[in-house]
Amino acid sequence: MKIAIASGKGGTGKTTVAVNLALALGNAQLLDCDVEEPNCNLFLGFNLKKEEDVNITVPEVDSGKCTLCGKCAEFCQYNAIAKLPRSLMLFPKLCHGCGGCVLVCPENAIIEEKRSIGILEKGTSERFNIELLQGTLNIGEPMASPVIRQLKAHIDESTVAIIDSPPGTACPVIASVAEMDYCVLVTEPTPFGLNDLILAVDVVRQLDILFGVVINRHGLGDGRVEEYCQSEGVPILMKIPYDRKIAILYSKGIPFIEQMPVWKESFRGMYEDICKHVSCKGDF
Ligand code: SF4
Ligand code: SF4
Predict the structure, then answer these.
(1) What is the domain partition of the chain in residue ranges?
(2) Among 38, 66, 113, 242, which residue has the fewest nearby CB atoms (within 10 Å)?
(3) What angle do CA 46, 51, 57 make, to 5 degrees?
């Protein structure tokens, strides 16, 4: 079972849900795909070890062979190559590594070079019975999706994999949520929470992925998120209250199921609901 934990906006409690769900289940993989700011390990304190680099290929031009025909620059949809009067200018950080410029060059003047954009790390601990895999995008790099895709290649299909997605609804979110069995959308009962939930629901519907909602800080704000879920037929999987003890544990980096064991059962119950939802293909 592969479950993505996502949210239309940052700061809703997505990582809290991902970490507590993984710990409540045990024997699970937790993949931190929020590669621009991975923070699951703030709650776990695992000893992380580097697994591998994440590289993309970028073009390198042999100026001795290049006739400045400009076909590569015309082809590149990402404006990663510009033809100047006497040379080509490359912008490696805009390159998506599609390899198209290599194919269209009539002089075979372009070769592909590897460029490191991030790393993958893995951690285990004696305290927690889960495996943590974390992707980290190098500072200043703009493309998170290749790191996320390489991280997801490490999913162990024989176990439960919990994916902590980046926030928002852009490409990195789609890279994390795509091909998951289920997506949990975490929101909060505020106007911003509702607005960004509606955007996130649109994304998961277009990806044709089953989903449900967790309302965090329930009791704060108003009832419009619940009204929206009811009117759209979206299941509310869990409501986590706006609770001082949970907030204090969060501020200390302690997963709240550790000290509030009743919530361990609630997260396990949520997982069972997700399994039912998946097994009956959404007819929940
Ligand atoms: S590999 Fe693709 S994205 Fe990169 S410069 Fe060439 S055409 Fe553009
Ligand atoms: S397509 Fe090849 S020959 Fe033409 S400008 Fe690009 S690198 Fe030079």
Answers:
(1) 2-46+128-279, 56-116
(2) 113
(3) 135
Work out the number of other CB atoms within 10 angstroms of the CB of residue 175: 22
- Minimal CA–CA distance to 263: which of 31, 17, 15, 45? 17
Nearest CA to ligand 1 atom 2: 98
| CATH code of the domain occupying 56-116 | 3.30.70.20
The C-alpha atoms of residue 257 and residue 255 are separated, in whole angstroms, by: 6
Q: For a pocket test of ligand 1, which of 56, 74, 81 has the largest count of ligand atoms closer than 8 A to its C-beta? A: 81
Residue keyed to tokens 């992925």? 209
- Among candidate residues 2, 1, 5, the one with its CA nearest the CA of residue 34: 5
pLDDT, tens digit, for every residue of 141-191? 989 999 999 999 999 999 999 999 999 999 999 999 999 999 999 999 999
Ligand minimally distant from the alpha carbon of residue 62: 2
Options 3.40.50.300, 3.90.550.10, 3.50.30.20, 3.90.1720.10; CATH for 2-46+128-279 is: 3.40.50.300
Residues in contact with ligand 1 by the CB-under-6-Å rule are 59, 75-76, 78, 80-81, 95-101
What pLDDT does 284 receive?
59
Residue 3: per-residue pLDDT = 98
Which residues are 236's β-sheet partners? 213
